[in-house]
């Protein structure tokens, strides 16, 4: 498999546009409601599959109807879901997202089965055999904070596997444990708030430099509407966001990761891969949900910039 994504798997129920929560039992009519595969592992896997990249996903869902739905959605889009384990008695992680007219996305969330994913659920051979392993949401998959899993990552990298890392939450208490994965990571893709919380830095460039010193060959900090910052040993480069109408910002970070990984597999350098990530994220921002706007596209659909 070209890519294996490991980590958070979530069902998202999205509705737009939501300006307020109705009082009592009143009803507001909306333009659109969708259910999507979400989470830093599952959403990235679906986006990669839509871009034509062979991808398998590893994670945990409950033995409930939401788990059935999530596995079905991912498989329908071409993701190999044999590594998604079912946890008896657990609820599948899920979010309800009322999307504001400006694309903002407050959320109601149940962490669910993600908290029960453990090293025993992960086949080391799948990790070691992949060209890229994407760690999505190591801050919330506490069962993978395990020296045995770290050793699997070390063995994979020794064999030539590239490891990318993205986080799920912006909860300060979860950042220190996630930081332990940096020595086993080639490319780290936090958002600005995560980077600042992990380092205590006063600015994003200072934060990127501090994170780079802990092991990755690149740190790519996503900055929302300001684009992203790419830091390597050669220096720091700002990549501007594309000017597109924003419908929903859900999953833009996951889409960025998918585009970045696809760029690496396409032979692009880190900066060019970041530009592809920017373009994929812009497409997703134009629709509802973490995979919006990617149907029928391939890596070749995006101009090499």
Automatic annotation (TrEMBL):
Signal sequence annotation: none
Entry keyword Kinase: yes
Uppermost EC category: transferase
Enzyme nomenclature, EC number: 2.7.1.-
Pfam families associated with the record: PfkB
InterPro entries reported for this sequence: PfkB_dom, Ribo/fructo_kinase, Ribokinase-like
Gene Ontology molecular function, alphabetical: kinase activity
Domain Carbohydrate kinase PfkB: 3-290
Protein name, as recorded: Carbohydrate kinase family protein
Originating species: Sphaerisporangium aureirubrum
